[in-house]
Amino acid sequence: MDELKLYTYIAVFGSFAVYFGIAWWARAGSTSEFYVAGGGITPLQNGMAIGADWMSAASFISMAGMISFLGYGGSVFLMGWTGGYVLLAMLLAPYLRKHGKFTVPEFIYDRYYSKTARIVAVACLIIASLTYIIGQMKGVGVAFSRFLEVEYDNGLYIGMFVVWVYAVLGGMKGITYTQIAQYVVLIFAYTIPAVFISLQLTGNPIPQLGLGSTLADGSGIYLLDKLDMVVTDLGFKEYTTDNMGGSVNMFAYTLSLMIGTAGLPHVIMRFFTVPSVKAARQSAGYALVFIALLYTVAPAVGAMARLNLMNTIEPVAGQNLVYAERPQWFKDWEKTGLLKYEEKNGDGKIQYTADEATNEMIKVDRDIMVLANPAIANLPNWVIALVAAGGLAAALSTAAGLLLAISSSISHDLMKGILTPNLSEKNELLASRIVMTVAVMVAGWLGLNPPGFAAGTVALAFGLAASSIFPALMMGIFAKKMSGTAAVWGMCSGIGITMLYVFQHKGFMFIPGTSFLGDMGPNWFFGISPNAFGVVGAVVNFAVAFAALKVTGPAPAHIQQMVENFRTPHGGIAEAHDH
Questions:
Q1: Which residue has the higher pLDDT, 525 or 450?
Q2: What are the angstrom distances between the C-alpha of 548 and each of 108, 471, 474?
């Protein structure tokens, strides 16, 4: 066994052993422990778990890959996802925690006094969560296929088994403590290579500063200026300009990601695990710190990975790498099918250009950039192995949170809340575990047939949450007269128009060749792309709900009083849940 494979096995399976050990130690014995970890998690622990939950495969693997290829345009992910957390911390989390229930659909049921509203919320949650989980499963498959040198499908099966063991056994309690360990793994895995590469390229060990520094070769050229020159010479757009289809689309994309963040149930659920409203606010503060540690490094990782890739393929201007002399990392990624070369001009050299007719790098999957980055930069094998463990930790941590959100919405909201209200706690816990097992299998199937690269798929999930769940929660808290019927109309309209826009042009996502409105092109509405359309869906949701309110009349007086109670800092119905 070669050194790299040995280090990788130690890092990956060593971390898995830790996750299994924690899951067994923290296994759930009640529905309270399964859904909200018994409400006994400290703000610091919860902040770290939120950080791991948040830094999914999309954040760890795909985000820097997006930034590598989109440049400045990729910043929408940084701004949207981080800004959304501020929205969540300020506008939603404290009020939802004060109300004190297990799940988002349960809050919607209480607030809108409607089983229909609860069912619609469950449907919206499942649609958004399953879309989101595709990205995590692809991340698992990508990491396993490369570093354990197994087929993508087999890598995915291993990942499914790992997440099944600790999610089904431990529930929220096991997932929380496992995510704390996963955060430690992934933050070291992300920052250590970035420090090495920043030192190599700029002489500055702090990646955030290295991104704005001059190169260490004595040329006096700034790193970003050099990258602009390299990519434009090959016909690509400047790295530091907008590559997102214009300012309107960029604004819509950012806002969609922000409000989608604040509406994702698997993130909101984390605030039910702490003992008080004050602890929920503190959790959000800690989480932002832990998230910032990775997110501020991501632009540097993306830019440096792109520069290293270009410099490898064209080490001297006008002189391309001979394919037969390609480095080992290139061969390794070719085996996965995520990197493909096709000889077109017979010279045996690798031409990498923006022109499809001459470009011989016919596939450079964006999701490989972070994982391949240490090998491209010739870093030590232990660093490469650490990145593999970090990528898997990121994907598995978020997958577990999503699976729990799906499981609890079906077993607690649909079964216990509506279909079989007399279900015992023991049977509800059993049902939760069965549902989660089925959810793992469905997620695995979606991972085997992933639509597009991980971050793009994830962005669509945020759009679906933005157009359905976020407006319902906002109106539930801040529009006390909003009625249940009006909220249901709003949710159905918001997610409906968003999905219609996504599916209306040919070949996008799940239904290739299907077009509901004729092939009008993907961005026919003011140039807004499908992944950014969630913000328009949210506006429709609000508009329809308030229009319907005029017809249905306001919520009953006792519901309005309940809203006043959980909006009041002290006292009120839900205060008892804080003690």
A1: 525
A2: 17, 14, 16
